[in-house]
Amino acid sequence: MARLKEHFIFDTRYKLIKKLGEGGFAEVWLAEDISTQLTLVLKVYLHTSKLDEYGAESFRKEFALVYNLNHPNLMKYTYFGICVGYPYLVMPYYDSGSAEDMIGNCSERTAWRFLRDVASGLACLHEQHPAIIHQDIKPANVLLDGRQYVITDFGISDNAMRRAIYGQNGDSHTQTGMGTVPYMAPERFEQNGQPLLAGDIWSLGASLYEILSGKLPFGNEGGKAQARGVELPPLSDTFSEELRSIIYQCMSREPVKRPFADDLYKFANAQLEKQAFTTSSIHNTSGGGIKHNIDVKRKSMGMLWTIVAFVVVLLGIGIGGWMVYSNHKEKQEQEAYENAMKEFHQGKSLYDLAVKNCQNQVGNFENAVNHLNVALQSESFMETEYGDSVRMINNLILDACVAEAKKNISGAYYDEGERAYVLSYLAVAEKINPENQDVVALKESITHLK
Q1: What tens digit of pLDDT does each residue of 90-143 get?
Q2: For 96-278, which CATH superfamily applies?
Q3: Which listed CATH number (3.30.200.20, 3.60.70.12, 3.40.50.720, 3.30.1330.30) goes with 1-93?
Q4: Considering only Cβ atoms within 10 Å of each terminal Cβ, which end of the chain, N or C, has fewer?
Q5: Global confidence as pTM
């Protein structure tokens, strides 16, 4: 194929306007559909061998999978074609730019919106069967569509498609080199490191870290530096503890310690709703006065004051009793709140200890849940941002317990010690959510061993 350039008519239909970018094996162009005069984006896989029949069919199947995804935070591919053996995709054009434009210049509320939208899109990808791992989440791959963020460059670019494009014997770089190094999770740099769903979460955390700080968390080395033991530089405390904490969790060294995309979406959405509530104001308005005859006013005032005096006497007794009751109730609520705060911090400390030290992990998890459940009893405490933290920590403990049980379930079939070990983790998970499907299934499986 001739070299692509401005004003070139691609596949007899698309007039190229300007190159928007170039990756490892594709060029991205702003173009005009000659037949409709609509502005769109073309991604042309030029730096490849021409697709054979097998490769073309594989590409079509991958396109069909992502074409049927309808989600507000996922870009919608509109067409797939092959021009003289080279595949290309047609995508909508977003003229508001990408998240790259707000690096180093992002408010906290915008950061929560970014986290909510990208996590929502990732949740949709991760819930597919089989799951779609993006493998290249970064600010440049998140576009702004009105007031929401949209993930682009997913599905088609995975390793299966690279095999389709490069052939079954593609070189090692194309088979394992998916992604952009500064945003790649540490496990990707291990020998034969495979992409994980949790890797997308790490990349999301790294992207948000860069957007807020203006700098990449580990420079150009990405997770490779973290795998060596380099500590993540702390974010400025001008951002809330909740926002900083969730970013640090996303960028945990161990994949199992990172939150799921759906949980991230729920947490970020809750933060935005809370901010909207606390920043709203209620304005009291009063109507204009009505002009009265002065004489009528004077007569009315005399009767009015008589009525007021009588009402005050009656109310005085009631108000006095109510104030005593109200003060007592307020004191009780304050004491409950303070106690809940103590229980929360105790529970969080035990959770942190369990995560950092596997010794007596299940015992620390259990104690943490006990303290957190006490905190849950205070309504005033749960209405604060700490309420979301309690729910999030409980969910993390639940996920960790289920993961540990699944990891050791096979040994429980022939070893009594392993069986007791699995049951101890399931007991903690049951305290959090006895109706969780994984907990129920694992418990039934263990029960059948008796």
Answers
A1: 989 988 889 999 999 999 999 999 999 999 999 999 998 888 898 999 999 999
A2: Transferase(Phosphotransferase) domain 1 (1.10.510.10)
A3: 3.30.200.20
A4: C
A5: 0.59
